Amino acid sequence: MAMASLARRRAAEAVLLRRPHAAAWASACRGYAASGEESDVVVIGGGPGGYVAAIKAAQLGLKTTCIEKRGALGGTCLNVGCIPSKALLHSSHMYHEAKSSFAHHGVKFSNLEVDLPAMMAQKDKAVSGLTKGIEGLFKKNKVEYVKGFGKLVSPSEVSVDLVDGGSTIVKGKNIIVATGSDVKSLPGVTIDEKKIVSSTGALALTEIPKKLVVIGAGYIGLEMGSVWNRLGSEVTVVEFAPDIVPSMDGEIRKQFQRMLEKQKFKFMLKTKVVGVDTSGSGVKLTVEPAAGGEQTVIEADVVLVSAGRVPYTAGIGLDAIGVETDKGGRILVDNRFMTNVKGVYAIGDAIPGPMLAHKAEEDGVACVEFIAGKEGHVDYDTVPGVVYTHPEVASVGKTEEQVKASGVAYQVGKFPLLANSRAKAIDDAEGMVKVISEKETDRILGVHIMSPGAGEIIHEAVLALQYGASSEDIARTCHAHPTVSEALKEACMNTYDKAIHM
């Protein structure tokens, strides 16, 4: 099937290049611009979307420049998001396992303690190594790297305030806006990164808070809450909506919440924050029911504001050149990632769609393929999502609620981890796999997994959806034994027949 996909891509490129205007455009783009004068592609932003776009553009033979305001490549994800949070999630999980589970496996400690500075140093080491790795890739692929804040001054020029002082103008035939996103603020809640922190501040606390309140029950809030919960914090999650992670399949969500409550998370759903007092040594939050009602005061040492993210598109010159955005500040693009201004493109968190690093990477590759006269493609229906708690929760495709609302007749197969031999062997059997397929054709519509390593297992399902596979296709594929991934095979069997081990 991979060969078929490659053949389709090459055929599409051949068709595209037979069009006179496209062939001329591709020819113009493939040649290097005059050295030191104008790049073929200028990327504003060095995050997952931006740096991947820059490298891919260079690989396609385009003279490429990448501008990054942080002075360190990788964007929010690598520097203060995905990577450092996963480092702390892993370290805190190791401590929690040593404290609560190792004795059951015959491993005992006489003295166990958290060395928070060492934990933070390990996190920083991981980040530093990866940022330097991207710089190495830039050098390898001959991408020019400009450290500074870039602002559009024309459809072909970017003014850059350099990190080391001074300014310069970078010219490009094509400009890609890959500026990412920023923390969404809450009215009346001022983030100082000390008592009231964003996810960035939550990654750099110097002490383990006795009481942590998380505002927002999305992916980020639950992951960061998990870190500090494992290290000993009493965690309370305040959420305006009636459910945690609203985008999650309802059945999985309920089991997920029960699992978190078992880990001593406290949830205050359908609740809004109406007041904040930081005058004392800690923080006092005044909350009330979302629909109004009696107010309650919650005390905390630290409050994490995790109410979502907004596109970072203000103040970068979009208005000056007439680039259109929606009410939320997201840049409007066509199916080739071009804005309404010719030669100006946008990708990643700056445009509509899920704010995920891997989605931004796919955007970046497809965008520069279009610029180079090739045929790019991103299938947004098969972008996976993962919550990196323990167990992890991963999904791809539609939830049961979405399938039901569409009116399509469907069937559901489930398999509990309690019946999976590997999960039982490692004493980590909390969770399940759920597969939804179309009743008439058995084509898989959605897969939802709560298990150890769910973020790795989900890619089998991603590939299945990408190629229109049926649940029987997976069920009849030999899976190594014993593995947790066998639970996916058995859930697929349960959609059209019966699983063996339940």
Brief description of this entry?
By secondary structure, the chain is an alpha/beta fold. Helices cover 36% and strands 23% of the residues.
Whole-number average pLDDT? Answer: 94
From the N-terminal CA to the C-terminal CA, the straight-line distance is 33 Å
Overall tally of structural domains = 4
What does the radius of gyration come to?
24 Å
Beta fraction of the residues?
15-25%
CATH class categorisation of the largest domain: Alpha Beta
| Principal-axes shape call | globular
Uncertain runs? 11-35
Catalytic activity: N(6)-[(R)-dihydrolipoyl]-L-lysyl-[protein] + NAD(+) = N(6)-[(R)-lipoyl]-L-lysyl-[protein] + NADH + H(+)
Protein name: Dihydrolipoyl dehydrogenase
Keywords: Disulfide bond, FAD, Flavoprotein, NAD, Nucleotide-binding, Oxidoreductase, Redox-active center
Family: Belongs to the class-I pyridine nucleotide-disulfide oxidoreductase family.
Polypeptide structure, described:
- It contains 16 helices and 21 strands.
- It is globular, with a radius of gyration of 24 Å.
- It has helices at residues 2-18, 20-30, 48-59, 75-80, 82-100, 116-141, 199-202, 219-230, 250-262, 318-321, 357-371, 400-406, 421-425, 454-466, 471-475, 486-496; strands spanning 39-44, 64-68, 144-154, 157-162, 167-177, 181-183, 196-197, 211-215, 234-238, 266-268, 271-277, 283-289, 296-300, 302-305, 309-311, 344-346, 385-387, 392-397, 410-416, 432-438, 444-451.
- The protein is of the alpha/beta class and 502 residues long.
- The protein starts with a helix and ends in a 6-residue tail after the last helix.
- Helix content is 36%, strand content 23%.
- It folds into four domains: 29-74 and 131-183 and 310-378, FAD/NAD(P)-binding domain (3-Layer(bba) Sandwich); 77-123, no CATH class; 196-307, FAD/NAD(P)-binding domain (3-Layer(bba) Sandwich), CATH 3.50.50.60; 385-496, FAD/NAD-linked reductase, C-terminal dimerisation domain (Enolase-like, domain 1).
- InterPro entries: Class-I_Pyr_Nuc-Dis_Oxidored, FAD/NAD-bd_sf, FAD/NAD-binding_dom, FAD/NAD-linked_Rdtase_dimer_sf, Lipoamide_DH, Pyr_nuc-diS_OxRdtase, Pyr_nucl-diS_OxRdtase_dimer, Pyr_OxRdtase_I_AS.
- Disulfide bonds join 77-82.
- Residues 383-491 form the Pyridine nucleotide-disulphide oxidoreductase dimerisation domain.
- One of its GO terms (biological process) is 2-oxoglutarate metabolic process.
